[in-house]
Design goal:
This protein is mainly beta and 371 residues long. Among the domains are: 190 residues, OB fold (Dihydrolipoamide Acetyltransferase, E2P) (Beta Barrel); 50 residues, no CATH class. 9% of the residues lie in helices and 21% in strands. It contains 5 helices and 19 strands. Strand 7 and strand 8 form a beta hairpin. The longest helix has 10 residues. Keywords: Mitochondrion, Ribonucleoprotein, Ribosomal protein.
């Protein structure tokens, strides 16, 4: 039974005076400001400086939502990328994705990656991870690539008009001009510095967003992506959406850079060859991991098949299966083949350790990371 609200009685003057004396506090005005932090920066060709974003709790991410006309649209969220090309890719830079690789099978037909199969037909885009072509290139457009989380940019050589696909940097748009200095420093750039290569002036003229150059030419603290490991190879690190590495230090010997130490987003610090390639900036589409598919059918379009828990299987199909109710037989979490699921077996070499590793990333070994 609902009760009616009782009217508040007006307090007397004596009570008000007593409360005012009790509730009076002396508060000192202290301006608490957090200490300044050193954030890596990236310079753009237009003279602007872009700093790294702060914590996610302090910033909001704008996603595209839809009116729930159907159940599948209710929870659908996508990043806002209105600048993407609406047409088809360049056919000569693509080839169809066929074969059993779409279903997670190897050349003998055995399943090596589970929960793969079906999906919409795709064409593989040929990405230039080496970028050895010198000269100025113009960004014709930014395209969506179904085979990766980041976006790709179609570049055109200003002289030869040769086209190529590269992983786009965050903020890159059509009409931007980028250049690769991996084949060497052009003569007109050396002449502009008075015939002498000055590292500071060289970085101010080359370390722009989207430019590809050896890591020895990039200033310390700069954000880079598409990072290579060897002087002769292509990019192998930080190729996914929103990923980047930071140059920590350079080891010099006789005025020549011998090794460069970079820090990956996992916390790992490793050495790479000073002539390895890298692209200045952050990989495009940084809000890709905030997307929500909204329905199971959209995952099937992407070639992702359902994942069945081992607890829901029979005892003949999984070590966790069988039994009455939710019970996995008092065994540790394992894979369908008995391999420990949390941490697995230790496979790190005690001898012949990785000489390129400076500081390993934090490994939990199946345990919760302390907060």
């Amino acid at each position: 039974m609902l009760q009616t609200r009782l009217p508040l009685r007006p307090t007397s003057t004596a009570c008000r005076c007593l409360l005012s004396t009790i509730r009076s506090y002396a508060v000192a005005a202290v301006d608490r400001k957090p200490p300044p932090t050193l954030e890596p920066t990236v310079s753009a060709g237009d003279g602007q400086i872009y700093q790294a974003a702060g914590p996610r709790k302090e910033s909001t991410v704008q996603m595209r939502t839809y009116k729930p006309r159907t159940p599948g649209l209710r929870h659908l969220k996508r990043p806002i990328n209105d600048h993407l090309w609406k047409g088809r890719p360049v056919s000569k830079l693509t080839y169809p994705k066929t074969g059993m690789g779409k279903a997670g099978r190897n050349n003998s037909g055995h399943v090596t990656v589970r929960h793969r199969g079906g999906g919409h037909k795709r064409r593989i885009r040929i990405i230039d991870y080496h970028r050895r072509g010198p000269g100025e290139h113009v960004v014709e457009r930014i395209e969506y690539d179904p085979n990766r989380s980041s976006h790709i940019a179609l570049l055109s050589n200003s002289k030869t008009k040769e086209q190529s696909y590269v992983v786009a940097a965050d903020g890159m748009r059509a009409g931007d001009k980028v250049e690769s200095f991996r084949s060497g420093i052009p003569q007109h750039l050396i002449a502009s510095m008075g015939g002498v290569i000055d590292p500071g002036m060289l970085a101010a003229k080359t370390a722009f967003r989207g430019n590809c150059l050896p890591v020895r030419m990039v200033p310390i603290g700069t954000q880079i992506f598409n990072v290579g490991s060897k002087a002769t190879g292509g990019a192998v690190f930080c190729r996914s959406a929103g990923t980047y590495a930071v140059i920590m230090s350079k080891e010099e010997s006789r005025q020549k850079v011998k090794e460069v130490v970079i820090r990956l987003q996992s916390g790992e610090q490793r050495k790479i060859d000073p002539d390895a390639c890298c692209t200045v900036g952050v990989a495009s589409n940084p809000h890709a991991h905030f997307a929500q598919l909204g329905k199971a059918g959209r995952a099937r379009w992407l070639g992702i098949r359902p994942t069945v828990r081992g607890l829901a299987m029979n005892a003949a199909d999984h070590p966790h299966g069988g039994g009455r109710g939710k019970s996995k037989g008092n065994v540790h979490p394992v894979s369908p083949w008995g391999t420990p699921a949390k941490g697995g077996y230790k496979t790190r070499r005690k001898r012949n350790k990785n000489v390129w590793l400076v500081q390993d990333r934090v490994r939990n070994q199946g345990k919760r990371r302390p907060k």
